[in-house]
TrEMBL record:
Pfam families: Lum_binding (PF00677). It catalyses: 2 6,7-dimethyl-8-(1-D-ribityl)lumazine + H(+) = 5-amino-6-(D-ribitylamino)uracil + riboflavin. It comes from Streptomyces edwardsiae. Transmembrane segments: none annotated. SUPFAM superfamilies: Riboflavin synthase domain-like. Keywords: Repeat, Riboflavin biosynthesis, Transferase. InterPro entries: ATP_synth_asu-like_sf, Lumazine-bd, Lumazine-bd_dom, Riboflavin_synthase-like_b-brl. Gene3D superfamilies: 2.40.30.20. Catalyzes the dismutation of two molecules of 6,7-dimethyl-8-ribityllumazine, resulting in the formation of riboflavin and 5-amino-6-(D-ribitylamino)uracil. Its EC number is 2.5.1.9. This is Riboflavin synthase.
Amino acid sequence: MFTGIVEELGEITAVENLDDACRFRLRGPVVTEGAKHGDSIAVNGVCLTVVEHEGDEFTADVMAETLKRSSLGALAIGSRVNLERPTAVGSRLGGHIVQGHVDGTGEILGREPSEHWEIVKISLPADLSRYVVEKGSITVDGISLTVVDAAADFFTVSLIPTTLALTTLGIKQPGDPVNLEVDVIAKYVERMLGDRAIGEGTAR
């Protein structure tokens, strides 16, 4: 489990295209400290498994399904990525519960800068809009953010200077894809209410 608090901006240093997958080599001095084979690291919000670790770099395999459902397929050598290690048991939950399971992708639609923050508008797939509410939580490229406005096909977030400086949202421009993970609690509530409705219908 992650919290959506990005630890560092990493970089793709090598890309190996396989028949039905892709192997990335990534540089991240912070997240590789103490890393070992089999550990999990979130890359732009996608939970990946460490295959090899040497110095401040690690490799991770990404299967075709993940490449299809996320924006990782657009990464190339030199791409900057958000990196986060799993949260430790007993540590503070600085963001919200993030699984590292991408629900879909959005696109940066626009940026509105101001003196102390920046409003970013992001497209929202139709099948995810019911989970996104004003002042609710959403994960964008692995970053835990609060929704400012929520519409049927887009939402906005307000970014402080720290987020702009330390994550990919500081450099992404209109047209760039982003990974989206909605609040998992909303999905569980929907499922439980749906099962209850089915049960009540059967009882009648």
